[in-house]
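Quiz preparation item.
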């Protein structure tokens, strides 16, 4: 079995990253200590003041050049992503290229979303000029996962930078090389100050960042770790945005385009070896089309192969410990009368997991209730879409979902309890920088991407300027009984009829 883990034999104060595909040494990185993290955050504070002092336009110009470097060197960046995560090179190129629109959008829209704008006044406050603007928080700590080591952390990083913050980034210990590449590329376009810095290490380095007194933490990872991050941040009243996992469902109505639905389900469940936070894990299919859909899904899924060679469409499982979770989920289903229509217990070979499609799965099976994070789908027959909605919502998670229906797609989607829904497609919403990304319940809170993603890394600052002395002076000890009576009359007139 090949692994990608921190090597305990590595030189003191460092850790090694090995390719999950072939076990080759990919790189060695510093295991940053609490003191290293504190020093990095201190440098970031100075850089944050300088960066916040630039105009939106000046920051946009730097972010645009950062985007240019990524676009021109996609293949190089993808090479590191491929080595560290094992994902196919073409998937790595796709992931990195999808982040480009986000950088462009955040840079372009920051002035409009965050810049000062006028706010309304009322009859009694007509003498005031009111305005609101969104100011940078200061230093943002970003903790990222390994599964999408470019697209996911940049969803926090570039929105935080566009809002005028400095960023200290702690990538997963499995993908520090990818994080390092991004930080080096940004330093080329912002050489003056360390506005975007890297710290590397394991969970303890992440914990040090949480305790370092940064102005906000943007965490992406599992719900379990999010709780630890939140508890640690509570000590210093550091706010957090938490982007966690899910058990996303895909619903197939009786009038759905079954070819499109089967293709989408296979991709959303099995691309990136199923290691996607918004990956489909459960499929609920209307009984009228269940058998036809299942046949089409199995045909598409059977055409995919996990491997480490260039022709494999699915890479290895990046995290060695995830293999046991996938095995446990499959075995539980089979033990309790479920069927493996494709794959099954022998689908696992070392770090490779071949596509699995399971049916007749009990709803309380871990394969349904927990995040499997492997190339595996459970497919369940439902009598109608009401049942599909009910089963979809019967989870503590609430990240994303997808609905396939020609006539009732949006209507069904509106009834799902989750942060994002795709209709007649999958993975479309993260590609739209104008749309906020995030979940509810155990999937987290707060938003990256879109206007909400920019505001997430800022604070609202209100200003009310008195333009002239009001005819009715209310906030003074010189207020008279006549003023009181008039003010009461006006308020009663305005609000009393409701
Ligand atoms: P983990 O929760 O294991 O780790 C996430 C990050 O937290 C890593 O960088 C990890 O460092 C770090 N970390 C670990 N312990 C601590 C701690 N005590 N304090 C601070 N930081 C810590 O998640 P994975 O990396 O395994 O990522 C997979 C999870 O991420 C899945 O649940 C997936 O659904 C979710 N995810 C959510 C997304 C979203 O946008 N909603 C997007 C992508 C993934 P290290 O790796 O060095 O231990």
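Solution:
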């Amino acid at each position: 079995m090949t692994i990608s883990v921190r090597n305990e034999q590595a030189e003191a104060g460092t850790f090694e990253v090995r390719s999950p595909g072939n076990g080759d040494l990919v790189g060695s990185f510093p295991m940053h200590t609490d003191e290293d993290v504190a020093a990095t955050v201190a440098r970031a504070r100075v850089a944050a003041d300088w960066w916040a002092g630039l105009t939106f336009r000046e920051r946009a110009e730097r972010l645009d050049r950062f985007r240019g470097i990524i676009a021109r060197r996609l293949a190089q960046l993808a090479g590191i992503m491929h080595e560290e995560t094992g994902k196919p090179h073409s998937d790595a190129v796709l992931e990195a290229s999808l982040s480009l629109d986000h950088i462009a959008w955040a840079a372009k829209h920051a002035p409009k979303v965050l810049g000062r704008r006028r706010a309304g006044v009322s009859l009694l406050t007509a003498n005031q000029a009111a305005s609101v603007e969104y100011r940078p928080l200061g230093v943002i700590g970003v903790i990222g996962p390994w599964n999408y080591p470019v697209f996911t952390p940049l969803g926090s990083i570039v929105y935080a930078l566009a809002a005028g913050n400095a960023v200290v980034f702690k990538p997963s210990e499995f993908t520090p090389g990818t994080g390092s590449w991004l930080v080096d590329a940004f330093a080329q376009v912002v050489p003056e100050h360390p506005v975007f810095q890297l710290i590397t290490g394991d969970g303890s380095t992440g914990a040090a960042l949480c305790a370092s007194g940064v102005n906000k933490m943007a965490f992406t990872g599992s719900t379990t770790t999010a709780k630890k991050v939140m508890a640690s941040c509570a000590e210093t009243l550091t706010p957090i945005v938490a982007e966690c996992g899910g058990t996303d469902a895909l619903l197939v109505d009786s009038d759905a385009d079954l070819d499109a639905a089967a293709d989408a389900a296979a991709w959303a469940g099995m691309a990136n070896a199923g290691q996607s936070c918004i990956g489909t894990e459960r499929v609920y299919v209307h009984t009228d089309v269940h058998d036809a859909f299942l046949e089409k899904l199995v045909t598409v899924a059977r055409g995919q192969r996990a491997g480490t060679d260039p022709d494999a469409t699915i890479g290895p499982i990046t995290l060695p410990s995830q293999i046991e979770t996938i095995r446990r989920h499959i075995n539980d289903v089979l033990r309790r009368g479920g069927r493996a229509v494709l794959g099954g217990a022998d689908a696992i070979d070392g770090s490779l997991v071949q596509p699995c499609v399971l049916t007749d799965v009990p709803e309380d099976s871990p394969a349904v209730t927990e995040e499997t994070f492997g190339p595996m789908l459970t497919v369940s027959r439902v009598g109608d879409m009401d049942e599909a909605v009910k089963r979809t919502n019967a989870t503590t998670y609430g990240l994303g979902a997808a609905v396939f229906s020609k006539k009732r797609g949006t209507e069904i989607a509106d009834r799902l309890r989750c942060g994002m829904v795709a209709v007649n497609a999958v993975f479309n919403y993260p590609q739209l920088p104008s749309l906020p990304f995030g979940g509810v319940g155990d999937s987290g809170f707060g938003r990256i991407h879109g206007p909400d993603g920019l505001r997430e890394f800022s604070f609202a600052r209100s200003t009310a300027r008195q333009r002239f002395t009001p005819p009715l002076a209310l906030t003074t000890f010189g207020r008279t009984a006549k003023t009181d009576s008039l003010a009461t009359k006006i308020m009663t007139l305005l609000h009393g009829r409701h």
